[in-house]
Amino acid sequence: MGSGKKEANRKVRQGKTGDGMANVKMKGENFYRDQKKVKTLNMFSKGKARRNAAGDITQAAIYQSKETPNARIEPNRKWFTNTRVIAQDSLTSFREAVEKNQSDPYSFLLKQNKLPMSLIRDNTKNGVKQHEAKIAVEQRPFQDTFGPKAQRKRVKLDVSSLQDLAGHSEKMHDQYLDRREQAQLLSGNAAQAEASGDGWADVDDGNSAAAREPIFSKGQSKRIYNELYKVIDSSDVIIHVLDARDPEGTRCRSIEKYIQEEAPHKNVLFVLNKCDLVPTNIAAQWVRTLSKERPTLAFHASINNSYGKGSLIQVLRQFRSLHSNRKQISVGIIGYPNTGKSSIINTLRKKKVCTVAPIPGETKVWQYVTLMKSIYLIDCPGVVPPNQNDTDADILLRGVVRIENVQNPEQYVAAALQKCQKKHILRTYELKEYADHIDLLEQLARKSGKLMKGGEADVDGVAKSVLNDFLRGKIPWFVPPKDWTPKDKRGKSAAEGAEEEGGRTGDLDRLNKIGMQDLRAKKRKRDEADVEGEDDNAGQKDHAAAEEDEDDEDEFQSFSVDDGEEEGVEVSSDQEDEDDDA
Where along the chain is composition biased (Basic and acidic residues) (predicted)? Predict the structure, then answer.
């Protein structure tokens, strides 16, 4: 022991602290190859398995082995229990609470990922009856029932005789008539069917008596719908842009139904664009009407003089707070062509980031635009859901097709004149009187000098100009709501109507219940003062017996820029820069 300690101390004094392996060389190491080179060559040679001529492995690689390692799982009862458990009573009460608040468009369910949504949103339809035909075809294919490879001699039917088959057919026919009568009552066409005296007069078999021009099928192609579905799938919030002059005509109800059934977790918002082209009380009434279904805002798209921009940004920020578990949200903008989807994006960005034009079909593909650090906008091409009840005139007057490509445009001028008042036509074109739409076109052709050979009026060219003026807002027109009466224009103020309908004029003011978060925008302080000022002006005009032209101007008084923006809601450029830098 002592000699060992002395030897160790001697090595420390002499600085020989190594383990004695300094002179030990690695196999293959020599004067020409150092240890590093040998390791590299071994990696190349031993990194793959050796095989014989038949391709079988004779020597496995270093990392290969036929022996499985021993693994052991921690013995814990949690492996065999549910991750989250809820009692049936709690599930029933929660389902009732969700169904009660589901009809409220201003309430949203939080933390859906932690809830059994498949149990809460249980499908009310019977899946077996709904897919009965599909199940029957899968269980009994055609080739196994008929043909030389049939596996049974007789077809299985629900009836045993021809009398039973006839009775079953009559029963199915009666059920069809009952469903059809119920559908007529719900759609309001029962009076027309009764007046015609024929119950089959209004049956739509999908066939048209006249050929339709291919241009009226714009916005229905597979490419457009592929772009639409990409936008819907990529969006957390969907803005449905409507034309304030005809909101019901520019609604895509089939797309709303698709979102409601396939993606109920996505938030949908209505935006009434072009509200400067309709009277103030009409726009407010449409906002109150549509607010019963979805959150609705009035908007005027303009880079310099906009309306509703601050309210829309405020609502988008509140939607962002709903998705607090994400770093950013995407907002898809969908709707009919030429409703101003790209113009809304340019208005929110205060510069031209999307190509816009007063003609439909300018946007061809979807486009991502950054609004701020946590909110992205997605521009979508305009889509036109097919509807058998829409005529060619209805499609054209919604701005879906380009007027210059329509054949015989004078045939649609009569439908356009029915939507606007005659005095507005006379005042717009400075005419005294006209008999019908042909007389109007001839007078305008002679007044503007659009004459053909022999002094004949160029009816087609003038008709295109009139239709363009109709679509681009030069001729005032609008489609009033169903519950709107002309007495509301003078006898009732917008504030009183708002109180009767619940006080919604574009603001989100309903409280949240049972785990829901409300989206409430601040009440615009200047609305009541502006409405009172308009009522005072209207009263003075009534007492002074103003002229008809002055009444027309007051009737089509649109949203002004100064009246619409709320102090504290409008986002200044400095504040937007701070959000971008944040």
Answer: 1-10, 484-493, 501-512
